[in-house]
Amino acid sequence: MTPAQDAIVRLILAAKGMSLNEYVVSCAVSSAANDLADRQIFALAPDAWEELQDILDRPAVAKPKIAALLDKSSVLEHK
Length: 79
Description:
single chain, mainly alpha, 4 helices
């Protein structure tokens, strides 16, 4: 860390009344939340958006094989 970077960090720590550890954890959590949000929001071109809306508006279709699979106990479940 350069002296200039150290000075900036020390100023914000004093202003916020936080320890370096608290500040670093806070910044890491905030950055992680933003990174996750970027993975949950997707931009689509107008034609792709319309296609997605058409797919979502279709009536539900029964999937008996999937329903049967979901009715079975998982190997991960305790008996």
